[in-house]
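Anyone else keep sequences and structure tokens together like this?

Example one:
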Amino acid sequence: MQSPYSSSFLTMKPYPLLPFFFLLLSLSSLSFSSSSSSSSSFPINIWPKPTNISWPIPHSSPLCPSFTIHCSQTSHPHLSRAISRYTDLLLADHHQPLLPPSLPSSPHPISSLSISISNPSAPLHHAVDESYTLSIPLSGPAFLFASTPWGAIRGLESFSQLTWSADSQILVAAGIYISDRPLFPHRGLLLDTARNFFTVEDIMRTVRAMSYNKMNVLHWHITDSQSFPILLPSVPDLAIKGSYGPEMRYSPEDVRRIVDYAMSYGVRVMPEIDVPGHSGSWAEAYPEIVTCANQFWRPPNKPALAAEPATGQLNPLNPKTYRIVNNVFRDSANLFPEPFFHAGADEVNSPCWESDPSIAAFISAGGTLNQLLQTFITKTHPFLTSHLNRTAVYWEDIILGPAVKISPSAIPKETTILQTWNNGPNNTKILTSMGYRVIVSSWDFYYLDCGHGGWVGNDSEYDSLTPGGNGGSWCAPFKTWQRVYDYDITEGLTEEERRMVIGGEVAMWSEQVDGVVADGRIWPRTAAMAEALWSGNRGEDGQKRYGDATDRLNEWRHRMVGRGIAAEPIQPLWCARNPGMCNLVQ
């Protein structure tokens, strides 16, 4: 995969260079210098850091009170909404930086932003072109060029972050040119709404924050053993009986609203229906297709029936299982236009299946649990990929599971993507070397729930007063933003294997999270991954740039809070106002 640091605006796609010519004219009397993804900060910064910035002598210009955004593709529904949204934001946002820039200011205002798009019909699918170029002269109009509407939305976000309020006026960085594109096409956040419920507004607020950080995939983990909150037309009882209640369900209208809203922010919504494990909630409507449902998860003197409460897995031997699963998949695909469909397949529990009489008889006759899982995948994968025309996404367990797994030969690589979560770079290498496309979500770097302490009750571990330990969290310690930022998701891979990594996702599992606390648990740590996957975590010198990132992330968190995202602080405010003074090494 080509590094963004080796590219420049001269090697970008051939966008029209007229605005850049204007920019050069406006800077012709200045001594030219440039920065391309360097480790140094500018007086005002963009998060995630663009791949290429040229701002030879930083200036500011006032934003005209009648500032407008023009685009010839006004008929594009999602782009037109984005333009309206950013126009309102730019004229109403009174962001005051923690360290206000002191820049020479042009007396002439920036009057407008003109957008030109070469491929306005490009759909919001995986690997769509999100590149853009942005030029803001010292006066007059600014220009934004993009191949697609989705690249234009990324450029609009960059423009918005170059503005700030000072002396009762809105200023914007001037004399600046940016050419930008993401390093990885898949930059996602997994949001689990099955353990604890998130309202539609909670989800939409999360989508907004994702777009602010140029992330493009909401991995919606909708169902699990605890609840089945999505109301599906052909199997309504799954939600009516399996959700937490009428006020904790997503109607088809809710889902369509979320999907459409996300598209206007350039965010795809990938649904996950986790099967055949993690399916205890299905038993409320269809107990006959679920094994070990509603049992205590750790029976005395016996193996655990689940990785956590609650229990229940689909029975691959019951023909009715496939009728129900196909209905769920079909209805879900009708609600989610996204070509990727996540079908789970993680943490299949052997004792849960073995406790079922029909499966016990199957094993006694010489069958294996691996054969059971393969039967399930063989019957459901073609329905997803051929009948519903989706790319199937599974957790790595499907072929790397510690207890139950299937042969890699049973999973077509052309229609399948695997998502890693164990063993850091090791499992990523195993899967890419097999030829699978991979999404990286290693728990020891990207699980945001880790280190928050245990949540199961009646835990005798707390009887001890011995200091230390993991606080009951299986994946402790807490993943700091630096831990997230510093992870290189292609570490140790060959060039061929690197090309198989399509990106990564942080995961917000919700055992101890709901919409009340989600913002602080997700942000700004997720912003750290957003930059690492957009422009990398290293400067031109090849060194990690987390020192520079600390100051920039302090400021970016401040701006996010001003936009209604309750991101947690990463340092005392004193540190942000005294850059470098809180470093471990001077």
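And example two:
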Amino acid sequence: MGNGTSATKVALPIDTPFKLPSPLPSLPQGEGFGNGIVNLGSGLQVCQVVSLNKIWATNEGGPDNLGATFFEPSQMPQGFSMLGCYSQPNNKMLHGWVLAGKDETGEALTKPVDYTLVWSSESLQIKQEGAGYIWLPTPLDGYKALGCVVTTSPEKPSLEKVRCVRSDLTDDCQIDKWIWGQGKESDPNGFNVFSLRPSNRGTQAMGVSVGTFVAQNTTSASISLACLKNIESNLSCMPTLDQVQAIFQAYSPRIYFHPDEEYLPSSTRWYFTNGALLYKKDEESKPVPIEPTGSNLPQGGSNDGSYWLDLPVEEAARERVKGGDLQDCQVYLHIKPMLGATFTDIVAWLFYPFNGPGRAKVELITVPLGKTGQHVGDWEHVTLRISNFNGQLCGLYLSAHSGGTWYDASELEFQDGNKAVVYSSLNGHAMYAKPGLVLQGTGNIGIRNDTAKSNKFIDAGARFSVVSAEYMGSSVVEPPWLNYLRKWGPNITYDLAEEAETVEKLLPGKLKSAFDKLVKSLPKEIFGEEGPTGPKLKRNWTGDEV
């Protein structure tokens, strides 16, 4: 996947921490959310340290060949100890954190017994600020190390520098994002630095990210570090309903639609009351109108093909409903604990009555793809990841087709304070953080995803409702349509060769073979209409975003 423009990246001011444009307003009172400290059980408390001291930096290698910088936490609250250092690439502003721990029992934390030198830049001919040394703490039996220590001296760090954690308070972790290396991220044998995340993530998983990194000489090596674990599944630091509503009002994204977008979102109520129909297998001639809340939709069960929804039968009504209604659009929120309830994910769902057809870019020519890519019903989402320590927006996940991308808050555009700007692609409604063209394909041939600002936009905080928050119990009642687990549109299959031939007729001879190659590389399901399932059957409903 690539975009239509390219530019030389320059190092950003890594010594200047990123800050959100506006301070978070005062929140309603709650139990533990935003109080700065989370109790993980067995006397282990943790805090999120965002004040970081620079230790060492290299100015080449890593993402965009701009190097990386290594930090240690500073200004820790009294009684808290460092668990490891933090690092990030130099192609973005400083925006990070690392956890520090406090032992209330005298058994949860302990000093390491030694250190092993993992790597040194001493002999390397690279652009660097002095020599850097990365050390791995050696834990006492029954304890695990959570992070490395970085120094500018070949002498081992003090054993007082860092703490290891009792093994039963830890969980397995895995490589997350590439921070630095002399070669490419894909080089399995080069020295690389990666951030870490819990291996098992989801609403029921209790692994806690520490914010540290792993440094190793091969990507296939087993990870010598662990993450933390909320062993008592303590959810007291999750926000209340009032707090969620206040947080979303503060951070709700502004979503821009392309100037040429014809297929806009609506509320489910608008869709149902404007003629959407429920179909049942073997009774296709007797579709049923849908109640405003979806109360007559089949509840539970599985996506077995027995039921599906469709647009109104009458052609004029069908075309009108396809266009949605931006003025009546509603954003539906799913609130869930993540990373051991140290973060809250606010998943904002948008419903579109219709997903429009795709367009291809073949060198300098843009060609419409006929019916290819279109289908009735479309669910897209934006996920806001909020720190339960301080209520800060840490990042945004934007869904795009069957996947999506995480963006750090420092990489986002903001308007009207802390409202991140999101761009919805023409017809397909994939979400992106920047305007322009994103091409699904290789070179100058692929499926177009065009985004741009226009006067068609929504402030997601203007019309929203919390439709699910399992941890809140009876405080949130799920609407009936949410538990409709079948398709939101019919299945219609097209003739692949016929669709491709129609488009190829528009192309000059030398581009026909290039387009044919693109068609053969596309998933077969794109050549047909298949209505999506609703939010509850998406993998991120109980799991983490990819």
